[in-house]
Every structure is written in structure tokens, then in C-alpha cells.
Amino acid sequence: MNYQTHEFTYQRCPDQTVSSPARHPVVIVGAGPVGLALAIDLAQRGQKVVVLDDDFRLSSGSRAICFAKRTLEIFDTLGIGDQTVAKGVSWNVGKVFHRDALVYQFNLLPEPAHKHPAFINLQQYYAEGFLAERAAQLPNIELRWKNRVVAVDNIGSGTTLTIDTPDGEYAIIADYCVACDGSRSPIRKLIGEESKGQVFKDRFLIADVKMTAPFPTERWFWFDPPFHPNQSVLLHKQPDDVWRIDFQLGWDADPEEEKKPERVIPRVQALLGKDVEFKLEWVSVYTFACTRMPKFRHGRLFFCGDSAHLVSPFGARGANSGIQDSNNLGWKLDAVLRGIASNPLLESYATEREFAADENILNSTRSTDFITPKSEISRLFRDAALSLAKDHAFARRIVNSGRLSLPSSYLNSSLNTLDEAAFDGGVKPGAPALDAPISRDGVNSWFMSELPSSFACVVYKENNTVEVTRMDTGASQNFVASTEWISRYDAAPGTTYLFRPDHHVAARWRARDASKISNAVRRALGQ
Amino acid sequence: MLLNTEPNMQDFDAFYEALIESHRDLTTAQSHEMNAKLVLLLANHIGELDVVRDALRRARETTLAAQA
Ligand SMILES: Cc1cc2nc3c(=O)[nH]c(=O)nc-3n(C[C@H](O)[C@H](O)[C@H](O)COP(=O)(O)OP(=O)(O)OC[C@H]3O[C@@H](n4cnc5c(N)ncnc54)[C@H](O)[C@@H]3O)c2cc1C
């Protein structure tokens, strides 16, 4: 499939001819990365899902290019992790330049012994394409292209959606509806809600260029370079010899003018040098904002991804946090549809992910403020930090060209059971599982692959043996822990972790106790 | 004792945010005044003249080098 040009076909469906609106348990509006990820998660859990999208193509332009480790781990559970990593470009080295000099370089290489790298770079249309292909394999998912939601009635017992198609309008009722309809979210507007926050008075030119120049696979960030004075520039590699270049333009730039090739090409040439041959793949001009909706849940209607929150791209938190939203909501909706949980669990989606959105917005705002100083004095401090950074290690920690996107830990979530025994580190209740090498039946593998899609109880026994029990079926199997696993979980014989279906820790103890475990499961289900 | 130039703070991003925020809505002249007071306050807290001298020297030298 050519992910940039592929067109999905619109098909008329039986719902369009019935006299009263058909009812569906789950309807997802928007087949972007977030809607597709959620649909796959639910379908794999046995739920039937209708996905509506007003378009018939994948992401236009590369958009999100940095996919973080946690996203790759979630992609593993959706069945597209290995494919994504294989296609993506792995990178570890970042360089920061100030004016014409290298200030410092850093190595993102996280601690070794994790299955996935800290980040890979991949055009969004690939990630979306892999998700769309995976969704097409699942009979539980019905994807309806060219189906535009034009009216919404949130009636409490569900949501009535009016949908426009090439064959005219029809309506359906969703028991549960999830709006994954992007930053301009028509559904948000239709219910009279707003995403509020800060818009940065600045413009950025995003140019993807194709070239075979021998630049290293590194992230290069310039503050005030000679070829683009007073502004910042970012250069980053994607697969297929495509390079992402971001030029800060300032607030006064004319977005339409700046998109024209005759304006873009000289800027790129100034960076690459006159004799490097390249082709423009995609050009766009953006203003960045950090905003969010006050509430991500409105009864049986949920907001997920960019519709709920928006961040500036420094630190790559848009798609990555949206995928985490879907990972948080999937198992909760499933539990409610199965009748084993109710309102409090659904509400915990909102509280956990609103907290995560605030954390992402804070990080992304700080990066944006450092990169685009708002006053003379903040520019002075920024330049002073850059100037000191060359010879003073502490100042490198102040320089902020975007911070690594890390998953949120829901440390204050009401779903957690508080520690009653002492742990020296390990993985706290609310935090996502940490990967580590393990072996099973003599074959080397990874801890993340041992975690099932249900609640799981993980008990460290002795002789490095760990037992993983699915809480839904009671089935269990053993693996052999590595020293990394033991130290990451601060494990001693008896140490017991309870993982939620999204692989966040719900509770942990120093000894296995069946009644404490079942209480913790109930608590994590909001019961 | 030597001036510590290794990272010596838990959360640099929170520090930097607080620093910039503390200058909000000040005129440039007021910011200068505030920075001067900040230097005096922190120097007193450090207390050791050798350490302060080392900091003064580094700040001055990196500034002259940048202008060169
Ligand atoms: C220049 C740029 C760089 C970025 N870089 C990164 C990065 O490196 N890392 C990162 O994590 N994120 C990045 N992002 C952010 C990322 O692209 C978004 O966060 C991500 O696309 C959000 O996914 P989504 O599924 O929520 O929304 P979208 O991808 O916007 O999908 C929404 C979908 O809803 C459909 N839709 C809209 N209205 C309707 C309707 N009425 N009826 C039916 N369907 C509808 C749309 O057609 C679309 O398919 C970047 C964004 C930009 C612009």
C-alpha cells in the first residue's frame, strides 16, 4: 500500500436504509491514530466497534514523526509494534547548536535492556497505515469512510449522531461514543464545549525534504544560527531519506506566502548548502497552542487525543499522549460493556488522562517558552544558559529544546491501592510497567510480552522464577527473571505486583495474599 | 571549596520556569535591578568568597568569549 496516496472506499451500509436509527455499543468518530488504536484495542477485547471518518485517506503530510517507547509498547499489544520499529529510524544522539557553535550533544540511549528504543522517527501516515491495516483484519471493526458527523445529541443514555455521506444523511445511536476527531473536533463544538489554554504568538514552517545527503541520523537543534538568524531550526531524519526541518518564523510571518516553494527552497538551501540536491515533500506553516477541554468525559461521550488536548510539538507529546488516552479508555469501556464496572471506572479515564494532559502541557509549554522567549529578559537568560552550557554541565540541564515524552504515572489515582510495605524504588502504583529481559523455556524474551490484556498478578518466587497469573481465567505461567527485572521491580521472594489491563501497576505487596489481591482488583475497577 | 558546576538541582525546568515567571511584567530596568539583588542574595547565601570569585570569573569569561 502507498500510505501517502491510498484511497479507502466509501460503502453504503444497511444503517442508511432503516427507518429508525440503528443502535451500536461503541461508535468512534475519527480514524486518526487515536481512533484507530482505540478501535483495535476494543475489538481485540471482543467488542464490536463502528468507526466513522469524514475523509478517505491517511494523514496528509508526515505530521507526527517521533513515536516514543511507551507508544511502541502499546503498539505491540495492538499487533503492529515490530512492524513500526522495523520501518522507523532509531536515533539516540541529539546536538544543540548556538549561533555557529556546537554547545553540547546528548545521548538519549536510555538504560539498556529494554525491548524498544526511547524513540523512533516515522511519518504519521505509516503509523496510521499500519493501524488501518490491522483494523481491517478485525471483523469486530466496521470502518465507514466518508461518513461525516454533522449533528450530535448527547441524550444521557447514549449519543445520537447524524452522519452525512455521499448518499445523504442518516442517524445512529451509540451507547458509548468516543470523539477522536482531532484538534478542531466538530463534536466538541457541537456540544458547546471549548478547548482552552495558551496560543503561542509564533509561526513555524515545517518542511519535509527528500535528499540523499550524508547527514548523520541525529537530531540537530539550532538556536539563532547564522543561516536563520534570531530564530530556531530543527533537523530530524525520517525513513525513505526524508528529513524534517522546522524553521521558527516569528509571529509576523505570512503563512500563505511562507508555504510557497520560492520562499521555502532558499531557507532549506541556506541550511544544507547550495549544492545539496533535495525535493520538497510536504510544507506547512503552524502556530502552536497548548489547550485542553475542562472535562474529557460528558456522560457516555468521551474525548480522546487531540480533540481533548493539544500540545506544541516540542517533545512529541501529541500522538504519543493520544495513544495513551486510547490505552487508558479501552479496557475501562470493555469492563463497563461486560457489566463488571460502571460510572466510577469511566470517570477515572477522565481524571487520569486530564492529569496526564496537564503534565504534557506543562512540559511542552516550558520547552516552547525556552525556544521562543517572550521578553527581552527571558531571551537574555536563555542565551546566558546556552553560553554557559558549553563548559558547565549544570547549564546543559537548563537548555530545553524539547523534553523526551514519557508516559504519565497516575500516582494519585483512586484506582491505586497504597503501598503497605516498604519498597526501595521499584514501580509505584499508578506507574506503567517497566520492561526488562526475561527468559521462558530457555528462550530470551521481554517482560512486556508476558503481560496479558487482562488484570495480571505477577509474583516473584525464588530462584529467579516469576509467576504471571491472568486474573480473568486464572491461567498462569512462569518465566525466569533477569537481574534487571529484579532490580527494576525491587523484587524479593514473595514480592507481588498487580497490573491493570493497560499495564499500569494497581498495587504491590511483599507477600501474596489472595484477599488483598481481589480487593485491589475491585478497587482498580472502581467498585 | 570549588564552585559546583555539575547539575545540583532536582528539577531544572521548574527552576527555569520560576525564574522567568519572577520577571513577568517588569520593565527591563526593573529586571536589571532584580537580577542585581538576586546576585547579592545568592552570593551571601554561598558565603565563601573563593566560590563567589570563581563564579564571577566564569560568568565574565564566558561573556567576553561570546563577544569575541
Ligand atoms: C507539524 C506537526 C508535527 C507533529 N509532531 C508530532 C510528533 O513528533 N509526535 C507526536 O506524538 N505528535 C506529533 N504531532 C501531533 C499529532 O499529529 C497529533 O497529535 C495526532 O495526529 C492526533 O491524533 P488524533 O487521532 O487525535 O487526531 P487526528 O489525527 O487529527 O485525526 C482526527 C480524525 O477525525 C476525522 N474527523 C474530523 N472531523 C470529523 C467528523 N465530523 N466526522 C468524522 N470524522 C471526522 C479526521 O478526518 C481525522 O481522520 C504533530 C503535529 C503536527 C501538526
Q: How many angstroms separate the termini of chain B?
A: 31 Å
C-alpha Rg of chain A (nearest Å): 24 Å
Query: Treating each run of at least 4 consecutive H or I residues as one helix, how many helices of chain B?
Result: 3
The geometry of chain B reads as globular
Q: Report the structural category of chain A.
A: alpha+beta
User: What molecules are bound to this protein?
Assistant: flavin-adenine dinucleotide
Number of helices of chain A: 13
The proportion of strand residues of chain B reads under 5%
> How many distinct beta strands of chain B?
0
Q: Identify the most extensive interface between protein chains.
A: A-B, 23 and 22 residues
Number of structurally distinct domains of chain A: 3
**CATH level 4 superfamily of the largest domain in chain A:** FAD/NAD(P)-binding domain
Q: Describe the biggest sheet of chain A? A: 8 strands, mixed
Please state the structural category of chain B.
mainly alpha
CATH class of the largest domain in chain A: Alpha Beta
* H/E element order of chain B: HHH
Structure description:
The complex is a heterodimer of chains A (527) and B (68). By secondary structure, chain A is α+β, with helices and mostly antiparallel strands. Chain A folds into 3 domains: 229 residues, FAD/NAD(P)-binding domain (3-Layer(bba) Sandwich); 84 residues, D-Amino Acid Oxidase, Chain A, domain 2, CATH 3.30.9; 88 residues, no CATH class. Helix content of chain A is 28%, strand content 28%. Chain A has 13 helices and 28 strands. In chain A, strands 1, 2, 8, 9, 10, 11, 19 and 20 form an 8-stranded mixed β-sheet that branches. In chain A, strands 6-5-14-15-16-13-17 form a 7-stranded mixed β-sheet, sandwiched between helices. Chain A has a 7-stranded antiparallel β-sheet with strand order 23-22-26-25-24-27-28. The two termini of chain A are 46 Å apart. The relative contact order of chain A is 0.12. The model of chain A has no long low-confidence stretch (mean pLDDT 95). Chain B is mainly α and 68 residues long. Chain B is globular and about 35 Å long. Helices cover 72% and strands 0% of the residues of chain B. The longest helix of chain B is centred in the middle third of the chain and has 19 residues. Chain B is built from 3 helices and no strands. Chain B has a domain of 41 residues. The mean pLDDT of chain B is 94. At the A-B interface, helix 9, helix 10 and helix 11 of A face helix 1 and helix 3 of B. Bound molecules: flavin-adenine dinucleotide. The site of flavin-adenine dinucleotide has 33 residues of chain A, from helix 1, strand 9 and helix 8.
